[in-house]
UniProtKB/TrEMBL annotation:
Annotated positions binding iminosuccinate: H25, S43, Y114, V115, N116, S131, H204, P205, E206, T221
Function: Catalyzes the condensation of iminoaspartate with dihydroxyacetone phosphate to form quinolinate.
Record pathway: Cofactor biosynthesis; NAD(+) biosynthesis; quinolinate from iminoaspartate: step 1/1
Complete-protein stretch covered: 56 to 362 of 362
Family designation: Belongs to the quinolinate synthase family. Type 2 subfamily.
Catalysed reactions, semicolon-separated: iminosuccinate + dihydroxyacetone phosphate = quinolinate + phosphate + 2 H2O + H(+)
Cofactor: [4Fe-4S] cluster
Organism: Ancylobacter amanitiformis
Alphabetized UniProt keyword annotations: 4Fe-4S, Cytoplasm, Iron, Iron-sulfur, Metal-binding, Pyridine nucleotide biosynthesis, Transferase
Residues engaged in binding [4Fe-4S] cluster: C88, C178, C264
Protein name: Quinolinate synthase
Cofactor note: Binds 1 [4Fe-4S] cluster per subunit.
Enzyme superclass (EC): transferase
Length: 307
């Protein structure tokens, strides 16, 4: 604790000196999430809040695509990544060239890409979506474009989970997976139910559809947090990255959280010491080629307009 307190104090001073804010994703470790993070939420909330930030500097306590999204929406601000290696298996699963090839193969079919992608991939896309608004976005795109086929990339499982909710639209998927959520199995859920009778199971839609089918509810990280707040289950398990339960549990001491643990190695690269270093040295600033940024921003802004 003394070490954590020293870093937290230094970061708070640096935030004031630099006119900086820290945006923290729900998967950040509790010592970041509950201390220096000024704004916390799911990918959608962080993108929305990034538009309204009234500071010169944004530090992203999250992964690289989140920092790029914040930069796209705030080109004049400095956006810092405490560790540039904090990537994402989904973002790594598809390139801009892949999208160009898919477009040749499916002429006229709109492309909706998950926010967990690089700016180059977003630039080749018509719309972005997050797990919190994917259903809304694909329905709006089908309506606005007058189509019943959409390329939904790159998360195969998200596309399959959304597909169940929009049977009237054909979603064409890619083979990208989240390395954290793909590890959960339906048997894990059955074992949890047997070990903890009456447990409520909440799953992230990046999980395989067979896992989501075993859950009581599927939704984004914010959706899961809202479910816990509103429904107040006596005992619950969040089938997602394990820091999420640690963070939600802080506000609900009355609820029994069962915590299987799958950590995201990319999220774990962000630490209090490297947030402090980012603010001390003003590194690593995220830069996006303006020609790419303009096209990528369009896809993100179209998403924000829908949701
Ligand atoms: P959400 O917070 O948007 O649900 O995203 C989950 C995720 O895996 C982000 O990396
Ligand atoms: Fe990417 Fe999965 Fe980690 Fe989120 S949890 S950053 S989707 S690898």
């Amino acid at each position: 604790w003394p070490l954590i307190a020293r870093d937290v104090e230094a970061i708070e001073q640096l935030k004031r000196a630099r006119n900086a804010v820290v945006l923290g994703h729900n998967y950040q470790a509790p010592e970041i999430f509950n201390t220096v993070a000024d704004i916390v939420g799911d990918s959608l909330a962080l993108a929305r809040e990034a538009v309204n930030v009234d500071a010169d500097v944004i530090v992203m306590a999250g992964v690289h695509f989140m920092a790029e999204t914040a930069k796209l929406l705030n080109p004049s601000k400095t956006v810092l990544m405490p560790d540039m290696r904090a990537g994402c298996s989904l973002a790594d699963s598809i390139t801009a060239a892949d999208i160009r090839l898919l477009r040749q193969h499916y002429p006229g079919v709109p492309v909706v890409t998950y926010v967990n992608t690089s700016a180059e991939v977003k630039a080749e896309s018509d719309y972005c979506c997050t797990s919190g608004n994917a259903v809304k976005v694909v329905r709006a795109v089908a309506r606005e474009w007058g189509v019943n086929r959409i390329l939904m990339l790159p998360d195969e499982y998200l596309a399959q989970n959304v597909q169940k909710l929009v049977p009237e639209i054909e979603l064409i998927a890619w083979k990208g997976h989240c390395e954290v959520h793909e590890r959960f199995t339906p048997q894990d859920i059955r074992d949890l139910r047997e070990a903890h009778p009456g447990i409520v199971v909440l799953a992230h839609p990046e999980c395989p559809p067979e896992v989501v089918a075993e859950a009581d509810y599927a939704g984004s990280t914010a959706g899961m947090a809202d479910y816990v707040r509103d429904e107040k289950p006596a005992r619950v398990v969040l089938i997602t990255e394990c820091s999420m339960a640690d963070n939600v549990a802080v506000g609900h001491p009355e609820i029994d959280f069962v915590r299987p643990c799958n950590l995201c190695p990319h999220m774990r690269r962000i630490t209090l010491p490297n947030i402090r270093r980012a603010l001390e040295t003003m590194t690593h600033a995220v830069e996006i080629d303006p020609a790419i940024a303009d096209r990528a921003r369009r896809a993100v802004e179209r998403m924000l307009a829908i949701s």
